[in-house]
Structure formats: C-alpha cells, structure tokens
Amino acid sequence: MAKSYNRYTTIRYIIDAPIIGITYFFAFNITSAKSLFLAPSYSNFFFPLIALAGWYIAASFTRLYADRRSNKYSEEIVFIIYTIFLFTILMSSVSFFLGDFFQFSRYFFLVFMGALFVLLFFTKYLIRKYVHAAIYQGKLFDNIIIVGSTQSALDLYETINKYYYYGYKCIGFLDNSISKLNGCTYMGKVKNLETVLKQQNVDEVVIALPNSQSVETQHCIQVCDYYSTRVRIIPDFDQYASSSIQVNNIGLVPVINVRALPLDKKENKVLKRLFDIIFSLLFFILMGWWLLPLIALVIRITSKGPVIFKQERWGLNNEKIACYKFRTMMADSSDTDDNGHYHQATRGDARITKFGAYLRKTNMDELPQFWNVLWGNMSVVGPRPHPTPLNIESIHTVDNYMLRHVIRPGITGWAQVNGCRGETRMPGSMQQRVNFDLYYIHRWTFWLDNQIILQTVINIIRGDQNAY
User: Fold this and answer.
1) pLDDT of 335-361, one tens digit each?
2) 93, 173, 262, 379: which one has the fewest Cβ atoms less than 10 Å from its Cβ?
3) How many Cβ atoms from other residues are within 10 Å of residue 80's Cβ?
4) What predicted TM-score, i.e. pTM, was given to this entire model?
C-alpha cells in the first residue's frame, strides 16, 4: 500500500481525538449552569480521557476504521451510528459507576452524542472527498496487477476503471493464453510474475485464475509471499451461487463453508418483520397521512384515470402479489409492445405523464407499497418485484434468476442503490441486477438494511439518473 494512504489511515484515527474533546466541551457548556473554563476541576478534564478510550474501544468492535474506499458513504454513516450506539452504552456505564465523581446535567449525554454525530458526519465526509480528489489527481492509489483473464478478472478491471475513487490502478495483467483484456496492458505469461514484481512498483496482486489452474495459483502466492506483496484471490465459486460462502481454516487446511441464508434463521425473520412493521407505521404517522393524499390529488388534477396502479408481480416463493404504485403513465397505456413482449419504461417514454416523471425520478411512485409491507407480502428492503411478463422472459436467460424470490421483495434494494434501475434491454443488465440481489440475500444483516434505506433517501434527494 502506498505510504500516502498509510498517512490517510493514521489521520482517520487521530482526528477523532480532538472531535471527542470539542464535543465534550460544547455539551458541558451548553447543559451546565457553570462554564467549564470558569469552574475547572480534575473530574471535568478526566472525563474526556475516559471518553476517548471508550470511543476507540467501541470503534474497534464496530471496525469503524476499516478501509471502505470501495463502499458508499451511507455504509460509513451506518458504522458511525453503530459506534456511537456502543459508545453511549460504555459512557453511560462509566457515569453510573462513577456518578459521584462526574456531575452532569440530565441533557448532557443527549447533546454530547448529537454533537458528536454531526461533527463526525461532516468530518469523515470531508476526509472522504479529500481522498477522492487525491486519487483523481493520481496522488493516492494502489498499483495492482491481475493474474488471469477470466470473466471475473474483466469485471474487476472494468470496475476499478469506472470507479476511480476505489483507489486502485491496474498496471497490467498476466495470462498464459490471452493477451487482450479490454485495453489492459499485457505483461506476459503467469510465470513472469516474479520478473514483474522485481521491475514494477506493485502494491497488490489479484489472482483470477480458474480452479483448474491450482498449481499456477499456488506458485503466484509463493512468489508474492517472497516479495512481501499483498495478494488476493477471486475464487471461481459460481457453482455455489445459491448459497452463502465463508472461508476459514481447520488447523492449516482452508475450508469453504456453504451456509444457510441469514434470513433462514427464525430470529432474523422476526427482526426483519418487526422492523418492516415499525418503519411502515412510522412512515404513515409522520408522512403518509398527508403526503399520499397530496400526491393522489395532483395525479387526479394533472391526468385522467385512476390514482393507484395495480400490477401483478411475483413475491416470496414465486407467489403472485398485487403490487400497488401511484399511476405515472397515461391511463390507456399498454404494458406490451407490438410483438407481445413486455414494454419497459424507457427514457423519454411518451406514456409517462409529466408529474409521473417526477414521481419516478424521486421514487415516490413506490410509496403505496408500504401497504404491501404492512400486509406482509413485501418488505421495506429486498429484491424489487418484477412484473409477471418480465419474470417469464428472464427465467431462461438470466442465471439464478428464480433465487431472488426466496425472500420477500422490497420497496428498495441493494441493486437499486447501486444504480441498477430503469430498463434492462442492454445485454447483461438484468444479470447484474440479479447478482446484486443475490449478494443481498446471501449477506443480509440488519445494518445492511439500514444502509440501503439511508442510501435510498440520499438518492431521492440527489436524484437518480437511471430513474425514469
């Protein structure tokens, strides 16, 4: 890893220390009748030291400082909230046991934690933008080389080129049979890896060889170990796509665990269902009671036809459900084209009304589906349900398509917040959407749901270029 990135990682650790101090002094002076500077005491200055230790302990449990260059900022926000939650528990325990030593107002912790979240939110956002700018200017990145020319290698190469802020620069690839990889520099056969590591400044080697070339893979690992170069392997696990995979060791033997899906566990099902009910009720109590009638009124005024559009879609275990949306197209619009194929909405689609275009852009046409969530045939987060004709078209053309129906469909999902929205006419676009859905199904956590909801809100505010 580049030395400059090590400095960035150190800054991420150190900068939280003054933030803890600033928020403490702010909260104390806001909630106390006496100013900290006018009535100093050893206890008042000892508490920030305890708070600092507690913060780094909480952060170590939540892995707040893990490298998340290739993840969205919404994920970092979730980890900030998670860390503050644990930090609050720690500091509340300290205050309980040392209540005679520390004297605070009843509102102190509320102000302290609120100010801490705000400062961390903006500070870490500014740091992330600084890192992105440095990467864009070529000052902060890891040089990597790819060994192999499989589809996974190509996908990796295209991903790091598209998302420059991941901080990786591929300087070339090696392969025994293919010398072209979408413009990537060819650096010879796999046996040339040692020569390349001698001559080039390489931070990381990514091995993307098929399983049949296990001897070459082992050779590459040995070469990387000798030159102290970090190595990663993109495994050929397509045959296990229906299961969640975990790699660990029994002694010195690496073992692949093919595990049950997270939502197969009863406690996870109950947690997700409770969250769906509580979140939906809060939506109707805080916003739905006035926002839904307002949208319905505008639709009624601006176009003829019903306010609500009901469409048959597939839900859990392929059961057909009635999915409700605000109508965004002309009332007499057809779902099929002249050839009888399902007619997806396209950019500039003449069937979409002016107000309907706005609803689609902001995702507000999906709001009636909170009724589906309360009824139990949808979830707040999950794979988006597709219309029946689109499902039938995709069954035989998209790998593992039906696996996306092993959990309830959602109003928003992992695929949607990663840009997989709109029509799927381009080759591979539906497969990419399904791959995101399967990633979510295999790696579901409560915190991932919160991250997706947060990213959805950000996309609504910012606007989604693929929403039309």
Assistant:
1) 666 666 666 776 767 788 889 888 888
2) 93
3) 18
4) 0.75
- Burial code of 15-37, b = ≥16 C-beta within 10 A, e = fewer? ebeebbeebbbbbbeebbeeebe
What 38-45 contacts at long range (C-beta under 8 Å, 24+ apart), as own/partner pairs, is 43/101, 43/102, 43/103
How far is it, in rounded angstroms, from Cα 446 to Cα 270? 11
Segment 337-344 long-range contacts (CB within 8 Å, at least 24 positions apart): 341/389, 341/393, 342/387, 342/389, 342/390, 342/393, 344/390, 344/422, 344/423, 344/424, 344/425
Tell me the fold of 142-236: Rossmann fold (3.40.50)
Pair type for strands 230-233 and 204-207: parallel
Q: What is the pLDDT of residues 223-281, one digit of tens each?
A: 999 998 999 988 765 545 545 666 666 666 666 666 678 998 899 999 999 999 999 99
Q: Within 13 Å, how many C-alpha atoms sit on residue 290's CB side? A: 3
- What does the domain layout of the chain look like in residue ranges? 3-136, 142-236, 266-462
Q: Are 200 and 228 contacting, i.e. CB atoms less than 8 angstroms apart? A: no
Q: Give every CB contact of residue 464 below 8 A, 6+ residues apart in sequence.
A: 361, 363, 419, 421
Give yes or no for residue 119 having a pLDDT over 90: yes
Would you say 401 and 241 are in contact if contact means Cβ atoms under 8 Å apart? no
Q: Say how far apart CA 240 and CA 232 lie, in whole Å.
A: 19
